[in-house]
Write a structure and sequence with these properties.
flat; single chain; Double Stranded RNA Binding Domain; about 15% strand; 1 helix; 3-stranded antiparallel β-sheet; alpha+beta
Amino acid sequence: MMKYLIVIEATQTGYSAYSPDLPGCVSTGATRDQVEQMMREAIEFHLEGLKLEGMEIPQPSTTSAYVEVAA
């Protein structure tokens, strides 16, 4: 089981998401839960496509952190 970081952003119509470790792998959804599920499916589809093409599966390597600043 692999764990890929996804970045979720609110949009005017719902949410969009992408994975920095998988360029071009993106999804959208009306709710946060929906975009997470759609992104899970998009990653599975993306990885399957890479396998079918005989390409290497990128290892998850992106991390995230929050920093606190005075605003």
